[in-house]
Amino acid sequence: MTKVDLKGLDARETEAWAVEEGLEPYRGRQVRHWLFQKLVLSPDEMTNIPKSLRALLAEKASLVHLKMIKNQVSQDGTQKYLFQLLDGHFIESVLIPERDHSTLCISSQAGCAMGCFFCLTGQHGLKRNLSPAEIVDQAVQVKRSMEGPDRLTNIVLMGMGEPLANYDNVVRAVGNLIAEDGMNFSHRKITLSTCGLVPEIKKLGQDITVNLAISLNGADDKTRNFLMPINRKYPLKTLIAACREFPLPNRRMITFEYILIAGVNDRDKDARNLANLLSGLRAKINLIPLNQLPGLNMVPPSLDDIYRFQEILIKRQFTAIIRKSKGQDIAAACGQLSGGASEL
Ligand code: SAH
Ligand code: SF4
């Protein structure tokens, strides 16, 4: 018998499940409270529900989806969590402490099929999609392990995988991250990053309200084709058109991530192309000096060149921020997540 994944159901479905089991609907609400707010791992800890329901949960529901294998702490405070899925695959989540809050970077797939040139996650291919419960459980498990769990206010879907290639599961998971009776994160504090799957970007704007980040990395099709194979399917013109149509609530912006690679996309002309491409968009640009990966024959530009690139964008009235990578010493930085089973 397959067990029901209660962390993958919404409030209504959980109540319906309770009713199917011959219980009052409010029992479903109680169970959700224990799972998402009290963060318990076992039915035995659910002290205000009867023993019979605890036994039913133990028999019919699966409550924990990830096994924490390793937790590494970087010199800068960044923490990387290695989780094993029940079928043996590995995924990683990264907790980034900031001055007054923390941000958790979660994975949406084990591996990734998109094959971006500069990204380690992509080099190993796609193992499989994560279920909604596996996506949410990263936040549950990390929050449980934190010293100040209330500091965790921000979630970014920027770990392993392409979230929009696992659309339904990601949307369902985000539902439980923002539900008031779920993990109760503000939708303003959740950011989904995509390499640019245009049909799903359009759908996302209709289905949920979250912040959108686009991994751009090239401001002309030739450069972007070389770095990101997905650009052959959805070239810049269609991608940027979808961004222009994306519904943005008051004062929100779309974030464009641009990895700077010496001699590849860091010339003045690239900065000007980027400014032209994004002109008129409510856009914020994150400039990310390339993290070097083993076997990758590319390097980040010099600091001078990075500032020069930024300056051109600022002169064109863009907010352009240089993002220092965190957690490099424990391979927790962007593009370095590999579900590092080999390092165990
Ligand atoms: N698949 C999604 C989300 C995960 S990738 C996406 O591509 O947006 C997370 C981020 O890591 C992306 O912004 C990507 O551009 C960045 N990244 C990947 N490899 C990198 C590297 N070698 N150096 C710096 N950033 C990298
Ligand atoms: Fe996949 Fe994103 Fe890495 Fe590209 S950058 S391979 S889409 S995880």
Briefly characterize the structure.
This protein is of the alpha/beta class and 344 residues long. α11 packs parallel to α12 (303-315).
Helix coverage percent of residues?
A: 25-40%
How far the N terminus sits from the C terminus, by CA atoms, comes to 33 Å
Regarding quaternary structure, what we see is single chain
Which architecture of the largest domain per CATH?
Alpha-Beta Barrel
| Low-confidence segments | none
Structural class comes to alpha/beta
Please give the order of strands in the largest beta sheet. 3-4-5-6-9-10-11-12-13-14
Radius of gyration: 21 Å
The unique ligands bound to this protein are: S-adenosyl-L-homocysteine, iron/sulfur cluster
Total number of β-strand segments? 14
Order of helices and strands: EHHHEEEEEEHEHEHEHEHHHEHEHE
For the report, how would you describe the main beta sheet? 10 strands, mixed
Mean pLDDT: 94
Q: How many structural domains?
A: 2
Strand residue percentage: 15-25%
**CATH superfamily descriptor of the largest domain:** Aldolase class I
Q: Under CATH, the topology of the largest domain is which?
A: TIM Barrel
> What is the highest CATH level, the class of the largest domain?
Alpha Beta
